[in-house]
Amino acid sequence: MSKNEILANITIEKLIFGGKWLATAPDGRKIIITGGCIPGSLVDLRILKAKKSHYEAQELRIVKKSPMEVPLPDGFQMYGGAKWLTIGYEDQLNIKTEQVKESFHHIEKWINEEQTSLPVFHPIIASPEIYGYRNKVEFSWGKYISAKEDIHDEFRFGFHAQGQFDRIIDCTYCALADTETNAIFLEVDRLSRDSGYPTYDPKTGVGFWRHFVVRRATSSQELMLIFSINSLYTDEVKIFFMDIVKQLTEKYPNIASIYFLENTGKADIVTGNPVLLFGKTAITAELLGLSFEIQPKSFFQVNTLGAEKLYTEAISFIKNKWGFLLDLYAGTGTIGILLAKYFEKVYSVELIESASRDGEKNAIKNGITNVEFVCWKAEEFAKKFLEQWGKADTIVIDPPRDGMHPSTIPSLLSFWAREIIYVSCNPATLARDLEVLIGKTRDEKSENLPKYRITDVTPVDMFPHTHHIET
Ligand code: SAH
């Protein structure tokens, strides 16, 4: 079979990496499917690529619904950021659990042979809220122009069409944002459409409206709004925004801070020079009893209540709560700050300088003095730290999706730390890194370094209705 041909009556089998799905073609080749699917459904697929080993395909139509399919809740809209809205939540949790278990399959034999006690695979921890759980929602302005679909819409406000940087789908209701954020979004939708200013065109770099971000401090309900605009803050723009600020703040008293972001760069990201239009420079989020300041560009876990569950679980695994703690890939230092009271000294290591600086402020805010914030690459810091101090009793690692840089692991092992807590957002790279930590794959240099035992594994769902899973 070749490109564009139809594979009829195929059953979607399971979730694999990166939110893709797996099925089997009649000729025995595996099919990797991109986009929204529901396991157990019978579908027709269009072949995008035919390779010797497998096909890549896209769902064309559903022939028979999966038993996992549930109706879309009233008023909700399906979009790229929440592709699993029509999969029942219990089923979502099962799919994610299976995925984590599967990533451990190829090291299972090794674990069974080498470990005297087997790891405990704990039940998945569900997100406390399954809708409206995001404390940061980013909407985009733009166009949707397609001759093929006969659409020529110059003003759109919502989310990017799946994989298309220059096409925007209008949002009617974002299921992952709370109701107040949705109401404010609709108000801004109206104000921006009435403004006469055009949306930004990424192809030409011309236009005005770019992104709108709403950040919420879960405990106090304070909101921060950020308008990312392709313009400098001129007098004309200033007058225009003063009116917007007045209308929004009169109607929504939870708005504590509004920023204008002079975003004239080419890249489709929320960046630029922030100008405070209204209220406070930062809002304050609470997490497990500690306070964290959120500036427009600060990193903060997007599901606050979910993050509390994740951190509580990670902390509960630590038996050696004394001595030196290394918190690698620390972001704004949240984990290290939460753990500081147990340790003599915490080293919070993060690549992005602004995140590291925010961490420093957060520690001060909470009266914590034994955390040192180091803005360095984890792989370099681990080596340097080892040469200088040679000791870390407990290590927490929370790397991005790609997992740890290979050169980090030998240094980590050289600490002979009693415990390593690995927080992962990608089961595939987690399994790959664990393989080295437990000694299944080792190079000559790390041959004689300690081999770790896996004791506990817990999947945590921080992102309902998406394929993302923490472990
Ligand atoms: N532990 C944090 C967030 C982790 S997200 C929390 O719980 O909030 C992963 C972090 O790793 C990001 O902040 C990213 O900037 C950082 N990072 C990515 N590569 C890195 C590297 N090579 N060295 C150190 N930090 C890195």
Task: Give an overview in words.
This protein has 471 residues and is an alpha/beta fold. The chain is built from ten helices and 22 strands. It has helices spanning 89-103, 105-114, 179-195, 235-251, 304-317, 334-339, 353-365, 378-388, 408-414, 427-437, and strands at residues 6-11, 14-15, 21-24, 30-34, 42-50, 54-64, 120-121, 136-146, 151-160, 168-170, 209-216, 223-229, 255-262, 273-279, 283-287, 290-294, 324-328, 345-350, 371-375, 394-397, 419-422, 456-457. The strands form five sheets. The chain has a seven-stranded mixed β-sheet with strand order 10-9-8-11-12-13-14, covered by helices on one side. A hairpin with a 5-residue loop joins strand 3 and strand 4. Helix 8 (378-388) packs parallel to helix 9. The protein is globular and about 70 Å long. The model has no long low-confidence stretch (mean pLDDT 94). S-adenosyl-L-homocysteine (SAH) binds at residues 299, 301, 329-331, 334-335, 349-352, 355, 377-379, 398-400, 405.
